[in-house]
Amino acid sequence: MEPILKTENLWKVYRTGKMDVPALRGVSISILPGEFVSIMGPSGCGKSTLLHVIGGLAQATSGRVLLDGNDLTTMNDAARTLLRRHKVGFVFQRFNLLPTLDTYHNIVLAQHIHGNGFDPHRFEAVANLLGLSERLHHKPSELSGGEQQRVALARAIISEPKIVLADEPTGNLDTKSSATVLALLRQLNKDLGQTIVMITHNPDAATYGDRVLHMRDGLVVDGSAAQS
Ligand code: ADP
């Protein structure tokens, strides 16, 4: 099977004044369609940087990123943005919902931005799956943290992205809501075949996936199967 995402000797160096900070120092990973992969490692080891570069939010310094066969590293910003919008769904620790919009509009806005038109069947299926059908007219401030993250999940998957990239999706949630969100991620993966890459520093959260990549000092040092 062809990987949906592949990196080859990926480097990202932040240039901050006099200092160069090498956040990624030659990362080569391969993610197959339908995999749920967790990325673990100490703070500052490059997890978020890796997620941003593979998702097209940031440009690599050198190396290659192949997303669904497209090389992100040879694209200009506009082409990379377009590809990202069509192929990647993001979930962030702080939910990043628009505060003035209700659940319904936070989710469908993603579709409108992408110019895919609106598919009411897909919307209904996603809202049901994520238990949001009774919360469609609530604004983020009227929702619990767990509910807000479920809205963010719905927004991420509504356009059927090739890959979902989640950066500490349970980092702002209590234990119960975390378990719900992780179980939903696993369900999206198992039932819909959604490919997911998730950063976490919680070993329990990492067991929800099939495989864990361990990072240290800008490198992937181990890519064993998850223990569950
Ligand atoms: P993690 O997600 O594992 O905590 P990051 O990818 O956020 O790690 O950071 C990796 C390294 O890159 C750290 O040393 C961090 O300080 C540095 N870094 C991250 N973002 C920037 C930035 N925008 N400018 C300069 N240095 C950065």
Short summary:
The chain is built from 7 helices and 11 strands. With 228 residues, the chain is of the alpha/beta class. It has a single domain, classed as Rossmann fold.
Walk me through this protein's architecture:
This protein has 228 residues and is α/β, with parallel strands linked by helices. It has a single domain (33-59, 86-225), classed as 3-Layer(aba) Sandwich (Rossmann fold), CATH 3.40.50. It is 33% helix and 26% strand. It is globular. Adenosine-5'-diphosphate is lined by residues 14, 16, 21, 23, 41, 43-49.
Low-confidence stretches: none
- Named CATH architecture: 3-Layer(aba) Sandwich
First and last CA, distance: 25 Å
Q: What does the average pLDDT come to?
A: 92
Q: What is the number of helices?
A: 7
- Gyration radius, to the nearest Å? 17 Å
What is the CATH level 1 assignment?
A: Alpha Beta
Helix content: 25-40%
Domain count, please report it: 1
Strand content: 25-35%
**Strand elements, count:** 11
Principal-axis shape equals globular
List the quaternary state of the chains: single chain
Largest sheet: 6 strands, mixed
Strand order of the largest sheet: 7-8-9-4-10-11
- CATH overall fold name: Rossmann fold
- The helix/strand class is alpha/beta
Order of helices and strands: EEEEHEEHEHHHEHEHEE
